[in-house]
Design goal:
Elements: E1 4-9, H1 11-16, H2 18-30, E2 34-39, E3 43-48, E4 51-56, E5 59-60, E6 66-69, H3 74-82, E7 86-88, H4 91-97, H5 100-108, E8 117-120, E9 135-139, E10 148-151, H6 154-161, E11 168-172, E12 175-186, E13 189-197, E14 211-214, H7 219-231, E15 236-244, E16 249-255, H8 261-266, H9 271-284
Parallel strand pairs: 1-2, 1-6, 6-7
Antiparallel strand pairs: 3-4, 4-5, 8-11, 9-10, 9-11, 12-13, 12-15, 13-14, 15-16
Helix pairs in contact: 2-9, 3-4
Amino acid sequence: MKFNGWLLYKKADAIKNQAYIDWFIKEAQFADMSLQLVYREDLTIGIMQQKRTILLKNEPVQLPDYAVSRTIDYVLSRQLESLGVTVFNASQISAMCNNKALTHQCLSMLGIPMVDTVFLEPQSIPVKPPISFPVIMKEVGGRSGQQVYYIDNQPAWEYHKGFVSSSIIIQACNVRLGKDIRVFVVGKDIVGAVLRESNNDFRANYKLGGSAVWYSLNKQESAMIHRIIQHFDFDMVGIDFLLSKDGNLLFNEIEDVVGSRTLSAVSDINILNIYCDHIKQKLSIK
């Protein structure tokens, strides 16, 4: 059986990621699957005539066997799932990964080490931070190092809290600033890891000008990551860790719409080949 799929993107993101899209479609073809780029803006979802409905360009459409969501839209993913479409990553995983407070809450239950992290709502931000300066302020839905602020004094705290309009987390930053580890995961397997580093920013994101080198996980680190992997039904994610002052991994966040530029830059691993095999295997046993 040949599986047919949708690759979901917002139009603006698709333009920036055209090479990745072409690569993904090619790897799906190699795996004897079809994969069609579909823009989120072209989809209409809702309840029409008492039925869950998905329209493409305002017309009825035959739904695919699977969809790879490269846009953060839990309602769309849930709508597709309710109509029998297998979504990668599933809506439940996407919802957790794209809320930093919820992710920390879930992983703390597994005993995964992390820096002190406080969850705050816009209406309940205190006069002074709940953790001693310096602190990191993050919007819970921020991505790619955006909506992240380093605050080291009271005037800066007052300035930034004046602009908060969404849920945030406040974190201690007794870590090695400008360094982090990204671990690439497909299904239950660790595909590889990279050390990202910036010499001019407290954030190590590759898109923000950071560099990357291959990182070899030791046995203890691999065991901790496998503890996370075994607990969740991931498809393809990037699990990010900060480094403590003594070099130990501290959980930071999980990217469910994860790119692979850094992995491709430091290795010859074809992660989309691995991912397409995972997708096909999961669909085959559904």
